[in-house]
Amino acid sequence: MKRRAFLGAALGALAGGSLYGISSEPEALRIERIRVPVADLSSDLEGFRIVALSDFHLYPFTQLPFLKEAIGVARGLNPDLIALLGDFVDSEVEAIDELWPALADLDARLGVCAILGNHDNRKGADIVAAGLRRAGVEVLLNRGVGLSVGRSQLWVGGVQSQFGGQPDLGEALAGCPAGVTSVLLAHEPDVADDVANDGRVHLQLSGHSHGGQINVPGLVQHVLPQFGRKYPFGSYQVGDLFLHTSRGLGTTRVPVRFRSPPEVSEITLVRR
Ligand SMILES: [Fe+2]
């Protein structure tokens, strides 16, 4: 009887966990607040805040009202800059037609910038990028921009996805003056080793891995994609480079998240 009761409890917990993973966690948005220490940060950039959203994957599993909620949260944080880290669509590129009007609601003091992800490239990079531009988003694919912050500058560069693109760090940083604090948007986190070796970037923001999406200890541990295995979620110091990998918002392949809730990242630059 005891054994049967235990088995029943275990099965109940598993069923409850599965229900939670399917019905609740995919929309249990969490704000992650990250402080990034930067050597020689100018006083103009002290406390500069970037809000990052990643891996929207609109349709078939991730729905628009949830993404609109995340967009509202990002906007409500009143950031200096918003960075969108790719994978706007999942299985149909037409989803961007519904997503871009929602993205147009994003607002930050110095604007909104974006890169594309592997799913965007697979379904139609030009179409996704055109939608983003219609929403007033600056698309940074192997290029960068210098933003004026007080009397200082912040460089924001972006690289293409490794899947269907060719990330070019040199082009993303072309024109970045020496000594200027620089942020790199790169969909796949594991390029961080190359970025750290290059030595010019202070902060890299990535997504791609969904934090593994499903993490059941001893059963399914971190289902991780290529180029998202070494630095799958959270913050890392890679040499002098600070990397933050967002768990992203949406789901792909299966409509489940378990112990990997969707994330809005709020990044604050502080002087080291
Ligand atoms: Fe993704």
* Mean pLDDT across all amino acids: 93
Order of helices and strands: HEEHEHEHEEEHEHEEEE
Small ligands present: fe (ii) ion
What structural class do you assign from the helix and strand content?
Answer: alpha/beta
Number of domain modules: 1
Label the CATH architecture.
Answer: 4-Layer Sandwich
Q: How many helical stretches?
A: 6
Q: Which residue ranges are poorly predicted, with pLDDT under 50 across at least 5 consecutive positions?
A: none
Portion in helices: 25-40%
How can the largest sheet be summarized? 6 strands, mixed
The gross shape turns out to be globular
Q: Spell out the CATH superfamily.
A: Metallo-dependent phosphatases
Write the layout of secondary structure elements.
Blueprint lengths: L1 H22 L6 E9 L10 E5 L10 H13 L4 E4 L10 H9 L8 E3 L3 H17 L3 E2 L3 E7 L2 E7 L10 H4 L8 E5 L6 H7 L4 E4 L27 E5 L2 E5 L17 E9 L1
Parallel strand pairs: 1-12, 2-3, 3-4, 4-5, 7-8, 8-9, 9-11
Antiparallel strand pairs: 2-12, 6-7, 10-11
Bound molecules: fe (ii) ion.
General description of the model:
α2 packs parallel to α3 and α3 crosses α4. 26% of the residues lie in helices and 24% in strands. The strands form two sheets. A six-stranded mixed β-sheet has the order 1-12-2-3-4-5. A six-stranded mixed β-sheet has the order 6-7-8-9-11-10. The protein has six helices and twelve strands. The protein has a single domain (2-271), classed as Metallo-dependent phosphatases (Purple Acid Phosphatase, chain A, domain 2, 4-Layer Sandwich). 44% of the residues are buried. β10 and β11 form a beta hairpin. It is α/β, with parallel strands linked by helices and 272 residues long. The structure holds fe (ii) ion (FE2). The site of fe (ii) ion (FE2) has 9 residues, from loops.
